[in-house]
Amino acid sequence: MSLDAVLSRIDSDLDAATDRLMEFLRIPSISTDPAYKADVDRAADWLVEDLRAIGIDAEKRPTSGHPMVVGHVGEDTDTPHVLFYGHYDVQPVDPLNLWTRDPFDPAIENTEKGRVIRGRGASDDKGQLMTFVEACRAWKAVNGSLPCRITFFFEGEEESGSPSLVPFLEANKDELKADLALVCDTSMVARGVPSIASQLRGMLKDEFTITGPRIDLHSGHYGGPGLNPLRELARIVTSFYDEETGRVAVGGFYEGVHEVPEDQLRQWQTCGFDEKDYLSSVGYSKPHGEKGYSALEQQWARPTLEVNGLWGGYSGAGSKTVIPAEAHCKITCRLVGDQDPDKLRDAIRAHVEAQLSPDAGVRWDNDLEGSRASVMNIARSEFEAARGALSDEWNREAVFTGMGGSIPVVGFFRSVLGLDSMLVGFANEDDAIHSPNEKYDVESFHKGMRSWARILDALTR
Amino acid sequence: MSLDAVLSRIDSDLDAATDRLMEFLRIPSISTDPAYKADVDRAADWLVEDLRAIGIDAEKRPTSGHPMVVGHVGEDTDTPHVLFYGHYDVQPVDPLNLWTRDPFDPAIENTEKGRVIRGRGASDDKGQLMTFVEACRAWKAVNGSLPCRITFFFEGEEESGSPSLVPFLEANKDELKADLALVCDTSMVARGVPSIASQLRGMLKDEFTITGPRIDLHSGHYGGPGLNPLRELARIVTSFYDEETGRVAVGGFYEGVHEVPEDQLRQWQTCGFDEKDYLSSVGYSKPHGEKGYSALEQQWARPTLEVNGLWGGYSGAGSKTVIPAEAHCKITCRLVGDQDPDKLRDAIRAHVEAQLSPDAGVRWDNDLEGSRASVMNIARSEFEAARGALSDEWNREAVFTGMGGSIPVVGFFRSVLGLDSMLVGFANEDDAIHSPNEKYDVESFHKGMRSWARILDALTR
């Protein structure tokens, strides 16, 4: 039987596949930092080469930001035409001193929970992306061709707000049409529990600078009468929240937020998510979000306003008695339900402006994007087929889960290409994505490839 | 008459004196940053050389930090033996991009308010220190010797908390004994108004880190249930203040703070301080400190708790959806009256610890010092003599002022050496000390030298 042969081929090729991933991980494709522009480009070239080696007609496609990689293989038949999406860019690595190894010199490490591939991007998203590419490589090696028409679509700006994504989708609508998008950028709800993400939170990014005195001041001269932008910023950040309820205190913030239906809540309660472990693994004794919601609901179904960076004044060695002229803040919101990112941005900005003291000002960064939350169309037959395939591979019933993260591309596939997405990923919660010492379990990589082979088989049988 | 000859000599030597100051300013003696250790040392060597050129028996004296420079000249007679103090270290220069020139490549610039010497340390304190050295050089050139016994004592750690000062004073008590300390590190209350600072605020420095999750987290995974140290820090900073009254809300903070006596307040009201100009020159429309006090009282007679640095999370280009493991804060307090820095440090720490949420922690930096406020002994006859000399030079009645800054050495001269201090300085409020584009007016430099010559004459007549 051809599926068995493909699975065997994946098993016997694991070491070589791991070597290929390592090579890919060595390219520091940090998309958010302009200093790494050439490396991002190099990662795209690497992918094009690798796809071509499997006989896929792949190209690097320029954008006004980092390039896209697009590949085509196969002809339309009565089997579905799938578009596979992943991203080849990675998060920044700071704080570098907390890494136990060079983030871009990956290695296999033995840990208490098994063997892992350690390095930036191992889990998010290079390792995940390669599970699909390797499944195709094995399929091709065994069968001489792939089982359906496949479009490969890899982005290099996912970690920096995907500024070129919508223009690219719009300009290449016809070329990127397919029956279903497969996206590998999500995690399993618990170790060993295969998961299909059926709802994602959206995202809103903003950044502002609080201004005060015209220049940095000496606190011996102006300490007392001087307005301090750092204190002003702290007060504004504090005003974002209602400490009693844990809710965001920006007017209109919860417009479009819906409660989770009872039956869905019940499914989540039995999906294998271990709240205690999820919290204690990072040092928390309890969930710190909105009162009255479980950690899972806070993560999957409730919106947030999170401060991702605060800075201003002196942060070097020793001390400096300065009242700085400016203080800076980066925020992101996770959106759910029908929250509208544009309305929310306006509400947050109005809130900040209403909080300002006399003599304080605010400047906004106007280059940051937003995306709505997404709910998958799990009534489609492909979802049941994939659930069966995953259950077979992992020997455990696959589950439909929510997700706290944001994968804006899913919303744009729908709005621009009219395309439903299916999100299947093999990351674990402890992969430390976006953190020092990111890793991807060798089990995730290996069974991930096998899972895709089974899904391709199930979708085309 | 010998004083006139000295003053003429100062006038004719102004260009050469300016060149010497420039040379001194070119040495980037930033004491708080270990990267500049060799430069701080080089500045001490420069001073030793320069003092020796005037016939002063000067030496660089090692400490466990940056060196002291000590010089002696003259024998005990019936004229007072003065100890002159200044500091040769300077503040860091960040944000460097706001400087209009290299901070360590000083130059004379023409401005609307006259000619200035632009560069880091021009005003604080290299330029001020050199007013006294140059006065001595001129005196020596004209008279062949100085008019009294003088000890020169220059510190290289004033901008970094003076860690070696007390041990050095204690170890060299006998050598540093004198009748009166002269300190040149203060400003004039208004342009052209010669000022003797009769009270100084004290200083307390502290630094803390708020800890939360064990590692940096991805806000897609933990945004909601996760405790964010940046939000925690913002709330703690906000809790330092009572927004209604503008007072510091730390329990016990105002213990030892006294109201300014009516007669002193009246003197301050007529001392030439222009509140409107003082505030508007840096972009303020009103004083932002405690309600019910003028800007001058807020600056000279009221205590503060100031945030000098906040940082944590991502501050690079673009955005990063991180919940950081840590958030950092540098604070300083300006102390008045009988406030006890040690008790206050305990009160602030207890306040922060009481504010912490479950799962949040705090780490303190235990290397930072404190000093009490100081009140000068203006009943001594030298103060009246200096006031007369200054009034003659500036053609304007000299005034006794308060000061918002902290000059801890004054307290240590008293407690360790039993020495009263007289603080005479020629800086202007717009000198931008501790800020980008620091400058010292050529008028301050020139008339400063002349003022010291007159004071030396008045003290020894």
TrEMBL record, chains A, B:
<dbReference type="Pfam" id="PF01546">
    <property type="entry name" value="Peptidase_M20"/>
</dbReference>
<keyword id="KW-0224">Dipeptidase</keyword>
<dbReference type="Pfam" id="PF07687">
    <property type="entry name" value="M20_dimer"/>
</dbReference>
<dbReference type="InterPro" id="IPR051458">
    <property type="entry name" value="Cyt/Met_Dipeptidase"/>
</dbReference>
<feature type="domain" description="Peptidase M20 dimerisation">
    <location>
        <begin position="208"/>
        <end position="358"/>
    </location>
</feature>
<protein>
    <submittedName>
        <fullName>Dipeptidase</fullName>
        <ecNumber>3.4.13.-</ecNumber>
    </submittedName>
</protein>
<dbReference type="InterPro" id="IPR002933">
    <property type="entry name" value="Peptidase_M20"/>
</dbReference>
<keyword id="KW-0479">Metal-binding</keyword>
<keyword id="KW-0378">Hydrolase</keyword>
<dbReference type="GO" id="GO:0016805">
    <property type="term" value="F:dipeptidase activity"/>
</dbReference>
<dbReference type="InterPro" id="IPR011650">
    <property type="entry name" value="Peptidase_M20_dimer"/>
</dbReference>
<keyword id="KW-0645">Protease</keyword>
